[in-house]
Amino acid sequence: MAQQIKAQAPVPAFEYELFEGDPDHLRTVVATPPQPTPWIEPAELKLKHRIGRGIFGDVWLATHHQIGVDFEEHHEVAVKILHPLDKDLTQKFVEKFEGLFLKCREMQGVCWLHGVSILNGKVCIAMKFYEGSIAERIAQVKRGKFQLADALRYGIDLAKGIKELHAIGLLILNLKPSNFLLNEHDRLILGDFGIPYLLLGIPLSSPDMVLRLGTPNYMAPEQWEPDVRGPISFETDSWGFGCSILEMLTGLPPWFGKSIEEMHESVVLKEEKPEIPSGLPLAVEHVIRGCFEYDLRNRPLMQDILHAFESTLNAVKSDGGWVGPEGKVLAGKSSGSGYTEWYLSKDHLLVGDTVRSRKPLNGHKPQTMEVPEGTVASLESDTEKNGSVLVNVTGRNYTIRVNQSKLERVTSGFAAGDWVKLKEENPKHAAVGILHSVQRDGVAKVGFIGLETLWVGNSSELQIAQAYYVGQFVRVKPDVSTPRFEWPCKRRGGWSTGRISQVLPNGCLVVGFPGRLVIGDEPRKSLADPAEVGRVSFDTCPGVVEKYQHVEDFHWAVRPLAITLGLFTGIKVSTCVGRRIGAKLKKGRRSSDGQDGQAGANAAWLPPPVANILFKEGASTATVR
Ligand SMILES: Nc1ncnc2c1ncn2[C@@H]1O[C@H](COP(=O)(O)OP(=O)(O)OP(=O)(O)O)[C@@H](O)[C@H]1O
Questions:
Q1: What's the CA gap between 625 and 619, in Å, rounded?
Q2: Is residue 525 a known part of a binding site?
């Protein structure tokens, strides 16, 4: 490729060179090609016609014309013209782009960038023009479905391209077949190098870019509101990858025919997953299923996907069918702990690591831990994947063999999954979050409400915070007058108590209210900032009334049941009392009729209907008996 030759080796001045490929695009033989700089003078770009329109702007066919002292170049390019940004922000975006330009040029699986310019105040990104895209190919093939071998082949190219961008810390966030271009060798090239990610933190005025974090059909749950349900991370692209492969295999995008609101409801609120076609090779099905885990920490990374696709491609028959894998059933979530093998494979133990028994994901620490604390003494040979390790248990004079998946690494007192807070609070995000990783050198990543991406810092800036688990009851703290998220009130005033049904990867709590009878469109669940709520438990309720009120929180039916029971008991008691009084009065009347005359005197002050009832009651009781 012409541009690659230019980037690789500096060409001596005045030495002419023939560029291979792209003969139509290069009209003039050049000498001393310029040093690659990202900035393109606006006059060097000549727009021809629009070739597409996307969420982030339009794509135009254009020519890039460069003239220097001793060289001249013409290239046919595709120019992505972004929707207008404020002037300062335009500059900010261009600077971000310039920082990435050379790194992207070294990538094999990412579209070749010509540079960036500003035309009529709009950011223009010029890139090599490619003849086709996967979206167009899907539209051309029979029934819109790729052969499995083709889907795997393109999937491998795609995973490699994504991996390259992830390696420099970029997320793509907009993976979809129209952004997968095809080069002259029928290889998939990523046409979007993370424009939504570059736009993060830039306030957007255009309503067209409100959904700036992706295209709804392909968006992961955390992508819809990353500062609330986030953070977005590398695994966010695994979801988009899974969606794109499904489209290659079925010919239809996920959630085809649904409105944006319906997709939001399916993906975010109901936690539904796109349908996976049956009959796929086990390893591929397994890894795609993993891409649709709701908690991003449970999803595979690109290298896991690549491994599954590459190993399967070898087994696929040339006619598009497939052979094997031989009967191995792959594990899903490990029993009851909530972790997938993808989560567990993100960290491997080394000899000398401090470890302790792993707690269930978002669950209570077990009462008794096999390894409260220990040191890894040695690794079994297959530790790479779910092997065992020998652990010297601290304070006890013995070594035990434990499966690696049952242990978590503790570094400077922290383990992934711990609840943490910053020693110095930052008003830009919630005070409490969840630790996603802590490296041996102390680099820590934390998900906080209010941040769209992971907080990255040193573990020395953190301290352990109170943990919250699924199943606990919580209520807004008395000193919080306006919680971050809407929270229902009791009918008699005061905050309702709810039960945690889910803990999101940034520590945001999803809380249900089993004690409230929800009628109609009222939301059934609320979100909560963990720093703003306190736990409510039967043991800590101070008095009998509070304890009873807490029982009411367990189910909305408790209250009507208690009222019914109370009424029933009341009626029963008053009936009993009535009978006794009736019997006494009757006795008294009898005596007044000739015996002692006391009851008749008592009955005289009762209003006539009551007296009648009492007497009737007494009479009937006497009859039944
Ligand atoms: N470098 C390129 N060479 C050839 N065609 C391109 C190039 N880049 C984009 N296109 C095509 O231009 C069209 C519009 O692309 P664009 O990326 O703007 O839209 P989109 O993918 O539908 O949405 P989004 O803005 O979300 O990426 C698509 O059909 C795409 O395949």
A1: 10
A2: no
